[in-house]
Design a protein that fits this description.
Helix content is 6%, strand content 39%. The protein is mainly β and 334 residues long. β12 and β13 form a beta hairpin.
């Protein structure tokens, strides 16, 4: 009930079951708004995380996005919005999970420290209430979760709304190269197939794009939880990796080169300018001697100068030392 002249609210005494109008010393017009339905209310966290009804006692957690961390106060902060068709509406947050019956009983006993959202804090354009909610990090870490509760009241009764179990995190995921144990780097150069794992406490999604000409793909980890990107022979190809955890924290590794480490043109150093390129030539006498060199030097077109190549002198079983024909020998480059 309100006074039509100044829109002041006439309080309702629940115990007595009547409005306390007070002394009537002038002509007054009182407006009674009577509700036949329970008030409607919903919670919105961050930009677009909607919660209808009572969810605190549901089993499925919700990974909270749009969270910031205030290190000076050791709290997480998130914008919370209450849409309700009555004023004022009320809220509080807690690490404790209450069923709707438990919350209603504690509310009846006056044991819930509700915060009131008055008309001054309401968004006039949308008719909703917006406020910053804080999550004490020490209490959150001790309990591993957080909940936000709200209520709206009219003469018909009270509507309670709550979030499910909230999981908060602001740490960005990291991709660790399995070959080196180090984090991947933007503009990094990697040789051979790139295998990496993701370090994060939450579920993650990994996207990969090979360009030019590639499509963005959602990667699937192997049975060990590792991801693999095949190496390229084409040096004009590059890669972007994006990793996002369940709370919306993202890490980007852009313009990565993943190449096979191979020698495009191999020449023996004494014949590096001969066209066309010739295979490395080692005399039969040198092969048959125990003093055969364990390595030789070659010139490669993709490096400057000569590089060492290890040579394996393992002779095939079908090798004929009397043969006049040249025979290939296995070798490896590094």
């Amino acid at each position: 009930m309100t006074d039509k002249a100044d829109h002041s609210e006439i309080p309702y005494d629940k115990e007595m079951g009547r409005f306390t109008v007070g002394l009537i010393d002038r002509s007054r017009t009182l407006v009674l708004e009577y509700n036949t339905e329970y008030p409607k209310a919903e919670l919105i966290l961050g930009r677009s995380q909607y919660f209808f009804g009572y969810n605190a006692d549901t089993a499925e957690p919700h990974y909270l996005k749009d969270v910031s961390r205030k290190t000076d106060k050791n709290v997480y902060s998130v914008a919370v919005q209450i849409n309700a068709d009555v004023i004022p509406s009320h809220y509080f947050s807690s690490p404790v999970c209450y069923t709707q019956e438990e919350l209603a009983e504690l509310d009846k006993q006056g044991k819930i420290a509700w915060g009131n959202i008055s008309i001054r804090s309401r968004n006039r354009a949308s008719g909703s209430s917006i406020f910053p909610a804080t999550i004490d990090i020490a209490e959150y870490d001790a309990n591993g979760s957080w909940y936000v509760y709200a209520k709206a009241e009219n003469l018909k009764g009270t509507t309670y709304v709550s979030t499910p179990k909230l999981i908060a995190d602001v740490e960005k995921p990291k991709a660790i190269n399995l070959s080196t144990g180090k984090e991947l780097e933007t503009d990094g150069e990697y040789w051979g197939d790139l295998r990496f794992r993701v370090e994060d406490a939450l579920p993650v999604k990994v996207w990969h794009e090979r360009y030019p000409g590639g499509n963005i793909e959602l990667m699937t980890p192997d049975e060990d939880g590792c991801y693999t990107i095949p190496a390229d022979y084409d040096v004009t190809l590059h890669h972007d990796i994006c990793i996002e955890d369940a709370c919306g924290n993202k890490t980007y590794y852009n313009d990565i080169d993943i190449l096979w480490n191979y020698l495009e043109v191999v020449r023996e150093k004494d014949y590096w300018d001969v066209q066309p390129a010739q295979p490395i030539r080692i005399s039969r006498n040198r092969i048959c001697k125990r003093s055969s060199p364990r390595s030789t030097s070659v010139f490669a077109s993709d490096v400057t100068g000569f590089i060492p190549v290890d040579v394996s002198w393992e002779i095939p079983e079908d090798y004929d030392p009397q043969s006049r024909w040249s025979r290939p020998l296995p070798s490896s480059a590094r």
